[in-house]
Structure formats: structure tokens, C-alpha cells
Write a structure and sequence with these properties.
Elements: H1 10-36, E1 46-52, E2 57-59, E3 73-79, E4 84-88, E5 99-101, E6 112-114, E7 123-129, E8 133-142, E9 164-166, E10 182-186, E11 191-194, E12 206-208, E13 219-221, E14 232-234
Parallel strand pairs: 1-8
Antiparallel strand pairs: 2-6, 3-4, 3-7, 5-6, 7-8, 9-13, 10-11, 10-14, 12-13
Length: about 240
């Protein structure tokens, strides 16, 4: 049986037309959404970030939609000597693993992680999206970033023949101190004496347990003796 629109009730025709129009609108919206691609968040904005030598820093850059994938992205640093923008790439830095994009499962996250910071890493960076949109970051590097976590003197109990961990941390575990030392107070001489695994009573008995956290300065003492008791200082 063939049924013409003329035989349909007006309400049915109107409903069909509205449904068709909604489908067309959704289709157009989808096409526009795909065609938009990545739009850079905070386009042309400048952000200042402070970091410390030896540590790591994340330079943020995102598409407004984290699921959008840009066709082309370039991270650049301004060369004040040549007055030019120079491209920086993790592909050219495989030996030191200093640079790394951290997009994970979000292609629209264009942030750059810089590790093992030096004073030379300071300057102006640009997240350059398809040569059309930019995000500027001014990175300020300060030498020596470790600030010891404040704590009251701790009392640690251990047994002869065993091991003990003396805790000491930077407030930021990813910062590397320029210089630090562990010392023990010598009551006979009334002085603080530096501890070394190379000589003295601690030869081959002490070690740092920082693993992958350079800001963890904790000291492990093994094969404890009664002479190991006393006051220690992480400085």
C-alpha cells in the first residue's frame, strides 16, 4: 500500500519534518565539530613559571578540547643572541631524555616536560600550533632548589646488627640540591663531623636511598653498632 503525505495527519507530517530537521542539524553540528580541530587555550597569553636547577618543570599547553588532535605542533625557544625562534624537540634529545610531551591519552594536551633543569633552560618558550596560534611561557630558573622539609628533631630506635633509615627530604622531591651532607655530632671533640661511606667507621655501611627522587636525602645505615648512636644532622 502506498500512502502519500496528503493522507497523513498534519501532526504526523510536522513530527516527521521536525525529526528530519533535527537529524540535519546534528549532522551539521558534527561536521563543524570535526572541522574545528584544535583551538589553543589561552591563545596569545603569556604565563610565567619559576623552577629550580636540577628539578623538572611542566610547560602547559592545551587544546580547548583535549580530544582534538592538532595537525602540527612545534615547541620553540627564543634565542636572544640571534633574535630568532628555534624549534626544540624530544626526538633530538633521546640521549638525555630531557624533553618529553606528556599528552598520555589526551591528544589535545600539548604540554612539555623539561627535566634536569639548568640555568641555560631559562627563557621564553612558545607552543606553536599549526603556525597560527601561540601560547607563550616565560621560564625563570633559580639555582639550587632544595628547601628541606621542616620537622622537629626525631628520635629513632634501632638495634645493633640491624639497619636504620634516617629521614630527610626536600619539600619538592624532584629538586636536586646543589650540595648537602650528613653529619654526626662528636661529643668528645664537641664538633659536627661529616659522614662518608669511603672512610671512617661508616665505610661501606651508609648509602642514600633516593631512587628516582633526587629530593629524597634519607640516609640508610647498615650493620649498626653501639657507636652509631648519637645526634645526626642533614644539612
Amino acid at each position: 500500500m502506498v500512502l502519500s503525505t496528503a493522507q497523513l495527519p498534519l501532526s504526523a507530517v510536522t513530527g516527521c519534518w521536525n525529526l528530519f530537521r533535527m537529524q540535519v542539524w546534528c549532522f551539521l553540528l558534527l561536521v563543524l565539530r570535526v572541522a574545528e580541530g584544535c583551538t589553543l587555550e589561552d591563545h596569545r597569553e603569556t604565563k610565567q613559571i619559576n623552577a629550580y636547577t636540577g628539578g623538572s618543570v611542566l610547560l602547559p599547553c592545551h587544546c580547548t578540547d583535549l580530544h582534538s588532535k592538532p595537525e602540527r605542533l612545534i615547541w620553540e625557544k627564543y634565542n636572544t643572541t640571534n633574535n630568532t625562534w628555534e624549534e626544540i624537540s624530544s626526538k633530538n634529545d633521546q640521549s638525555t631524555n630531557k624533553l618529553r610531551l606528556v599528552n598520555g591519552h589526551s591528544p589535545g594536551n600539548l604540554s612539555l616536560l623539561i627535566s634536569h633543569l639548568t640555568t641555560e633552560d631559562g627563557g621564553v618558550y612558545r607552543c606553536n600550533l599549526e603556525m597560527k596560534e601561540h601560547r607563550f611561557i616565560f621560564l625563570n630558573i633559580t639555582a639550587g632548589g632544595c628547601v628541606l622539609e621542616k620537622s622537629t628533631p626525631q628520635s629513632v630506635t634501632a638495634h645493633t646488627g640491624g639497619s636504620v633509615l634516617l629521614p630527610c627530604y626536600c619539600t619538592d622531591l624532584y629538586t636536586t640540591p646543589e650540595e648537602f651532607s650528613w653529619k654526626k655530632y662528636n661529643m668528645d671533640r664537641n664538633t659536627w663531623e661529616e659522614i662518608s661511606s669511603e672512610s671512617g667507621q661508616y665505610r661501606n655501611r651508609v648509602q642514600l636511598v633516593n631512587d628516582h627522587s633526587p629530593g629524597n636525602l634519607s640516609l640508610l645505615i647498615s650493620h649498626l653498632t653501639e657507636e652509631d648512636g648519637g645526634d645526626y644532622d642533614c644539612n
